[in-house]
Amino acid sequence: MNNEKFSIINRLKSFKYAFQGLKLFFVNDHNGRIHLFAAVIAIGLSFYLKLSALEWISILGGISAVIVAEILNAAIEKLADVVSPGFHPKIKIVKDLAAAAVLVAACLALVVGAIIFIPKLLFLQR
Ligand SMILES: Nc1ncnc2c1ncn2[C@@H]1O[C@H](COP(=O)(O)OP(=O)(O)OP(=O)(O)O)[C@@H](O)[C@H]1O
């Protein structure tokens, strides 16, 4: 437990650092930029297709799961590169597991997107 006195300034600083992390991810990280682009497309399509509240929740849930997984994956990769700059079989397992988390979230988001968008897009063309 932290015995430091509660300070609103320190809480605000934590937000500042978190936003610095977000900026690092979405501006400097290639995967982050790709995910931001995909999220913008999905949100744009959701507005265009006038999704219901439940459909919006599913799409936003999918987007956040992928972005959260990718941010944690990027953080783990950076930490692993400091801990072991050279090849290490255990670092391989750590990095592969972190990448697997992104893969699972991305596949599920893709399925959710397909279930919601495909019937609406097919219906639009008739
Ligand atoms: N230090 C290491 N020791 C062992 N295996 C590693 C190491 N670094 C990377 N690897 C292997 O290479 C794969 C890719 O690692 P890397 O850090 O390049 O991830 P990436 O997703 O390609 O990176 P980026 O996000 O920069 O594109 C890992 O999943 C792991 O199997």
UniProtKB/TrEMBL annotation:
Pfam families: DAGK_prokar. InterPro entries: DAGK, DAGK_sf, UDPK. One of its GO terms (molecular function) is kinase activity. One of its GO terms (cellular component) is plasma membrane. ATP binds at Y17, E77, K95, D96. The chain crosses the membrane at residues 34-51, 57-76, 97-118. It comes from Pedobacter suwonensis. Its main location: membrane. The keyword Transmembrane helix applies. It is found in: Cell membrane. Its cofactor is Mg(2+). Substrate binds at E70. One of its GO terms (biological process) is phospholipid biosynthetic process. Keywords: ATP-binding, Cell membrane, Kinase, Lipid biosynthesis, Lipid metabolism, Magnesium, Membrane, Metal-binding, Nucleotide-binding, Phospholipid biosynthesis, Phospholipid metabolism, Transferase, Transmembrane, Transmembrane helix. This is Diacylglycerol kinase (ATP). Gene3D superfamilies: 1.10.287.3610. Mn(2+), Zn(2+), Cd(2+) and Co(2+) support activity to lesser extents. The keyword RNA-binding does not apply. Belongs to the bacterial diacylglycerol kinase family.
